[in-house]
Amino acid sequence: MNSPIAICGLSPHPPIIIPEVGRGEEAAASSTVRGLKALSRAIDGAKPETLIVITPHGPVFSDAVAVRAQARHRGSLAGFGAPQVTADYENDLELVRAIVKEAENSPKTPIVALDDSGFRRHGIDRDLDHGTQVPLYFLKEAGFLGRLVVVNIGFLTYMELYRIGMLIEEVCRRLGRKVAVLASGDLSHRLKPGAPAGFNPRGSDFDKTLMDYLADFDVPSVLNLDPDLVEAAGECGMRPIVMMLGAVDRCRVSGEVLSYQGPFGVGYGVALFRPQGEGSSRLKQIQEKRYARMKELRQDESFAVSLARKTVEEYARTRTRAPVPRDVPKELQGQGGVFVSIHKQGMLRGCIGTTEPTAGSLAEEIISNAISASTRDPRFPPISPDELDELDYSVDVLSKAQEVSGFEDLDPKKYGVICEKGRRRGLLLPDLPGVDTVEEQVAIAREKAGISRSEGGVRLYRFTVTRYK
Predict the structure, then answer these.
(1) In angstroms, what CA-CA distances link 65 with 113, 180, 375?
(2) Distance CA 341, CA 352 (A)
């Protein structure tokens, strides 16, 4: 049986490449424009009844994927100085309702429908975001006149997003709907100094690695990219790509990279994927690669990380606190503040810390904060035993904070910062991706403390961090 997915693609979405917006600057991205025109012709040539665009912009929720349920999709690029560039497409409401209904029967695929009342209730702009409108500009130019379904990413794990892609494919198959799936997303936003999210030398490594995997259609490797590399890149394309890949989980696929460049400090990748018939699900390969990576992490982890992990595992299974081991290394026998961070498939799953010692030793501090990070972070539910094999950890040991007289004594790459006024206190760790100046670092720390930018009398402290992985 042929797949209902006729064709897939990856499209960047910088408004500047549209002539009415760029006004000549789009010439610097001519390779991207040529690639998008070729991709758009291929999609129109596949004659899909419906185009599904997956975008990282617009209404994005932390715990679900949103699907627009309006009768029509409309928008313009007025926010980018080009109100004459408009989009107006009929929604495929039958497909949208079927997707949402299917998701209601599966707690592992959280999907919500956003109709006009939903947009009003959440205070969300109902116009199409630029992540959808930019690729539509080239598709319209190529002659595409079909219906449109717009799916917004959620901040879920990659496996949850992949399964949502699988669900979309299953619903399309059941309805007999021939569709094209387009992942709209830019790659690293940190390719050079002055880039939108600052500069990180690993940004170009991420872009090359990801585009190589896509050219080979190596799905397990895409879903198991090093989370530190993904974070360093400052991208917005991974989640749309993962959902698109899920939609062709059971297909043999040929991939072709049509173009890649980063003229403005952001990576633009254009790729085309053609299903070649039925194949086997890649879920087992993805999980096997994930487990192999986790096994490698466990073998190489530091004593501090091992202590945090074993503490969380013991507490999640038995609700008992692990004792301090007898073989604590000398560097963890002193006292200090500690932050324990837990991630699940690249997503933060919990982070709790202390800026000053509250226990008799760093080892005890790690144990206490590991339990707190796994059970008391107000942003997340407590970690359950069935998640333990999916988690990775880091431990940051803080030096004693020193008060400083001004910005000249700070360095966001070397020092963390604490802003304090009265009982309000905000902390930011050092060397965070995208935080490149003292001004940015202090502004974020003030915001975390609830101290407005106009308030004076703020005391500044700096500290260093020893990070264990």
Answers:
(1) 9, 19, 25
(2) 7
Return the closest-CA partner of residue 233 out of 268, 274, 271, 266.
Answer: 266
In angstroms, the CA 162 to CA 345 distance is 12
Q: What is the DSSP string of 355-406?
A: SS--SSSHHHHHHHHHHHHHHT-TTSPPPPGGGGGGEEEEEEEEPPPEEESS
As a whole number, the mean pLDDT across the chain is 94
Q: How many residues belong to the chain?
A: 469
Alpha helices in 26-115 (DSSP H): 30-45, 93-104
d(CA 39, CA 163): 25
CA distance 374 to 397: 18
| pTM, full prediction | 0.89
Tens digit of pLDDT for each residue in 426-456?
999 898 876 888 999 999 999 999 999 889 9
The reported pLDDT for the residue numbered 116 is: 86
Largest CA distance in the chain: 71
Provide the β-strand partners of residue 125: none
Sign of CA dihedral 343, 349, 350, 351: positive
